[in-house]
Amino acid sequence: MDFRTELTPSPSSEDLDAILKPLTEYNEAEVGPPDRIPLAILIRDEEDKVIGGLSGYTSWGWLFTQLLFVPTRLRGQGMAAGLLDQAEAEARRRGCNGAWIDTFNPHALRAYQNQGYEVFGELPAFVGDRTRTFLKKAL
Predict the structure, then answer these.
(1) Contact call for residues 22 and 29 (beta carbons, < 8 A)
(2) How far is CA 117 from CA 22, 62, 114, in A?
(3) Distance CA 101, CA 51 (A)
(4) Which one of 82, 86, 118, 134 counts the least CB within 10 Å of its CB?
(5) Taking Cα atoms as reference points, which of 35, 8, 37, 13 lies closest to residue 24?
(6) How far does the chain reach from its first CA to its final CA, in angstroms?
(7) Is the dihedral of CA 111, 114, 116, 122 positive or negative?
């Protein structure tokens, strides 16, 4: 069997699909369908413009928060906790029993721990001297 490898900084969507499709089929055969459903909670200003929020998805019984941003003027008012509470409630409604998130921001780390998330892994010196921390929470 002849093959070659190619390093590229700009794979086409077809190239990525050629990797994703068989991987998805393999995983589904091993553990079942992911039932991946997007989840977003938006923060809107007085002009109805999105200025922050939470974005993630639920899959295989887990909530994964990919992005969480609170504008500076709204920090320290429990906004992040409120976003996480809403996301977790929706995840429970969808049948999830766990949540995970990661960060390399020490302020976010404390906020997540205050919400009941516990550390399950770290990558020291991920960016400069900052550690990337992986957290989970039972729902």
Answers:
(1) no
(2) 33, 14, 7
(3) 21
(4) 118
(5) 35
(6) 48
(7) positive
Q: What is the band of 46 on the pLDDT scale with cuts at 50, 70, 90?
A: very high
| Total-model pTM | 0.89
pLDDT tens by residue, 78-98: 999 999 999 999 999 999 999
* Average pLDDT rounded to a whole number, residues 49-76: 97
CA 30 to CA 42: how far, in whole Å? 35
Single-letter amino acid, residue 31: V
**What pLDDT does residue 1 have?**
84
User: Distance between CA 131 and CA 105 in Å, rounded?
Assistant: 8
